[in-house]
Amino acid sequence: MAVERKFVEDRVRKLRVKEWMAQEVRNAGFGGVDITRTPLGTQITLFVERPGLVIGKGGRRIRMLTERLKEFGIENPQVSVDEIQNPEFNAKLMASLLARALERGWYFRKAGYRFLYRIMEAGAKGCEIEISGKLTGERARTEKFVAGTMVHTGEPIYTAVRVGYDVAIKKLGVLGVKVRIIPPDAELPDEFEVREPIQVEKIEETKETKETKETEESEAKTEETEIKEKATKKSDKAGDKKEVKEVKTAEKTEKTDEGVQKSKDDKAEEVAEG
Predict the structure, then answer these.
(1) What is the CATH number of the domain that holds 72?
(2) Residues 17, 62 within the same domain
(3) Are the C-beta atoms of 212 and 150 separated by less than 8 Å?
(4) Which residue among 10, 190, 213, 221 is least enclosed by CB atoms within 10 Å?
């Protein structure tokens, strides 16, 4: 088998699995599926609004899904379910919920505005909802519901805009639902940030304060060293003075001892002469 044909077959298999999963877990709020190959098998991650409906009681339904996935030619499938943290910013989930609402009998204009307000109130930068098909009569048409800013050209439609599509099956025919959402964390080309010059002044102030602190610390260190040197000099001088005093006192005592001895000798000589 050629390498190109193998790649095409793998992509077709993944597309079939995604379409089948969307139909199986449509009641749980399907928000997408991620299929990755691992050395141990194929990891399939489902993103839904209500994971409990997919897992089932005691995990019966998820085991049934793993058994059914083997029929698509997937070796050792491992299914995991994750809950969507921000459902209002998931375009696939919003399109699926809107399609289910239309199937339950909601009027298309009421349903479109309801979901539009829900998405914008959650904090999205822009939203566009398209509902096409036999809305009110035998002739098909398209209705758009737009709020905020929306991008239709350029690179941002691939990086900033999230697109979701689903189908609502009704008695009169099929309605197509397409949802485009720009989440609040998306960066658009026309958005920019103006930095105030106060920040630069603050940086300069911080540098000056650091320099002043360093100079003050160095001056304090020099003062401490000078004080220590003076103290050592004073102590040395005091020691020298003490030594001089001791020497002088010793000399005085020697002189007094000599004078006493001379006086004693003189008295002894006088006594001997007398």
Answers:
(1) 3.30.300.20
(2) yes
(3) no
(4) 190
